[in-house]
Amino acid sequence: MQSKKRRRVNPPTIHPRNRYSEKPPDFALLSSLYPSFRPYVFPSSRPGGRPSIDWTDFNATRELTRVLLSHDHSVNWWIPDGQLCPTVPNRSNYIHWIEDLLSSELIPPLNFSDKKVTGFDIGAGANCIYPLLGASLFGWSFVGSDVTDVALEWAAKNVESNPHLSELIEIRNANNTLCSIEDVSKSEENIEGGMELSDRESLKLKQNVESHPEAQVLLGVVKVDEKFDFCMCNPPFFESIDEAGLNPKTSCGGTMAEMVYPGGEQAFIMRIISDSVVLKNSFRWFTSMVGRKANLKVLISKLREIGVSIVKTTEFVQGQTARWGLAWSFVAPKKNSIILNTPIKSHHSFTLQGLPRQLGAFQILKAVESFYLAGGAACKLDVSSFSVKVDSILPPSDASNDPTSSCNLSFHVSVFEQTPGTLLVRGSLLQKNDPLSGMFSSLFLRLEDSLKNDFVNKSRLN
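and the corresponding structure tokens:
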């Protein structure tokens, strides 16, 4: 009997519009045209084989990226030692998939004042590869964000080194909350009513941003009234730097900030998902690359919970490397589109696994209460039912005498012990059709991030 791998009829291939889909880079030609690349190229040990490079040599992979960007894209480029070095064919696959999404009939375009495509690259890195490729291939405009001084400095240098593209790309420091929360609230309209957020909702958004100042992703980085066709991200794939160095066959560099995040890629993409709930009207498509196929199921399940209108996935294959693409949107799809018929749920849940056996439901329940109290919520803990009732995310407003202006969000959070070391945390809205159900989804995602960081990730380190 054939194995499952052998029975696969149509394995994924490089994107058909990728420049290298039919003809991979010719190392012999490149070495003759670029003397700086010549020392890294060696002939094949097989008769008639193609020349190659030492993929474990960072200098070789960096020089290959430099000459490919110069030769095939007319882009001047460089990064310092140790920074993440992207492979041009692989990154081009992602760009072409974005093009597929934008040109598809799945969802209508946003009503922009002009027809130029604008993208947001979360974590552009020193290499700034996605904005440079998108701008050079299609003339797209980009905002590229990052958090380290080295990444911001070299991304800016790579943009400035290409005057024909520099007006299309802005590099933004995600450490600075460039837009006030009042700006965010004004730019985000409710889907149903087209109304600006109330003062109470604006304060809720402010608490969301200020409760996670250590790692701004989209909230607080996207400016007032900014609209984007898409965001994209090559997330930190690993939970530790040791895990990041497990592949001995390649050497693409990468710093701690680029490669590692508490909880790995799944936790980082969850942050993007959480921010997308609040900024659902600012982007046509939210997308991210995913390094592990096993994470797709978890992430798609979370997207269904928050009530997105559509989810799309793809597989990127380049040589021996496989990655996956995940895209979602809150824009109402066209009638003929295949959609996820998943209305916003009135309840969400997640599991905490791998906990120390002595850590029980009561300790987690107290942590839930502390989390929401720290955010200004009014909480009531019920030990008999192992639940916390959250009556309001905000303190009462003294400025409003109109009782109808209050938009309190009320829900229960319960904790159940499934097996020793595994707990189920469940959140339920008290009003199933609460207009703030999207905010509930975002707040519950933040709770999940907090509990997993405080208990699951730390227990792994001990």
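(Above: one complete record from the training split.) The chain is about 35% helix and 20% strand.
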